[in-house]
Amino acid sequence: MKYDFNTPVNRRGTGASKWDVPEQVLPMWVADMDFKTAPEIIEALKKRVEHGVFGYTDVEQRWYDAYINWWDKRHTFKMKPEWLIFCTGVIPAISSIVRKLTTPNEKVIIQTPVYNIFFNSILNNGCRVSESQLKYENGVFSMDFEDIEEKMSDPMATLFILCNPQNPSGNIWSREELARIGDLAEKYNVTVISDEIHCDLTDPGYEYIPFASVSEACRKVSITCMAPTKTFNIAGLQTAAVCVPDDFLRFKVWRGLNTDEVAEPNVFACEAAATAFEKGGEWLNELRAYLAENKRIAHEFIEKEIPELRAIASHATYLLWIDVSNWKYDVNSVLTAGEKNGDTDAKDLTPADVLRRKTGLFLSDGNIYGGNGSSFLRMNLACPKVTLMDGLERLKEAVVSDRAS
User: What span, in angstroms and rounded, lies between the C-alpha atoms of 72 and 78?
Assistant: First the structure.
């Protein structure tokens, strides 16, 4: 391979949220990668730093062209420059849109289990969460369209937040599924915010489908949030875009983003995004292959070494969604003397709590994602293989220690 994904990068002491943990803890939770970004991006940022002046920055035509060309070539979706609005991040965009397009106490539909910050964007803006739980059968998640229609038919439901591809399950939604969402949204006058931040992180041979590209109905009701940040591990640069084909809807979104002051770039934001889309294709192709291999290793390890657990098959994201419902863990084995005396209720300890106390492995607690998430853990596989194997061995250690209990 031309690019190096095997050499660990020491992120401790760098202010990294993920790695701000004790030395014995192995963090494999928050969704950022433990790889350096593409060297082409690093070189572009070095050049910008060497210029030495970091004043207010405009969004130049190059930024629009980079997004348009990437989505056209990679995802066969032709966007127009006027559809795109710069934003500092996908979540700031979603929160701003919820504020602008709803009134307090209205309902926003999400499909759970789903990215937990969606709950924050809804509740913090005075709206109510309307959960349409994904069906879970034989290790596969799917949409419940009967329930979706019931939720959308409620006059109090004005927005639907779609996660495409889905986080945490890793599902790539089909054209037919997305079309049905668009048809229902048009029928019931519901606007769809499509979070497509994980769209480029698909397995080799698999591609996602942009929601707005599926049909005229999808195009009319869609607000798509996109960014290079997950793909190229540059989340700290705060750079994203919102794509809104409909003129009236786009004006409302533009007003919301500017009112909330989240539509202006820092000096590195547009440079990093444009360079990523212009020069990062080869790096991304190798990354996708590396992540797919990590995913294969994790699936085979869990199936062979930890049969109590079930890794959910997926073809998108670098996140592994693990069914731990058959893990009969011993909570008492991780309680301190004080906790056993009644200071802590053992029932409150989740599988992630038990795992971290037993082995130091820090995974995301499934219960924060809603739906049936309390029976799951989310594991970030975007790391060198030596880190991956450390994490898998710790996971095995925790489960094996309970087998004789």
Answer: 5
